[in-house]
Design goal:
Layout (H helix, E strand, L loop, with lengths): L5 E7 L8 E9 L2 E9 L4 H10 L1 E3 L2 H5 L1
Antiparallel strand pairs: 1-2, 2-3, 3-4
Amino acid sequence: MTATNLEGAIWFAPWTRDLEYIGIVKIRTDKGYKYKIGTAENNDLAGLKRIMEKGDIFDPKMFEDF
């Protein structure tokens, strides 16, 4: 997965300096879109790549149920 597959990202800033940023990324694949959520030290390209590689996959429909 490369940064060229990245379709979008949303960052949530920590409310204290002790916490990391929370990011949600939308990644284009051959089968459609994949969404990953994870944390990063900064809201920059390195943080996006970290989430793309190590983030947890989730389905946005789960927010509808929540």
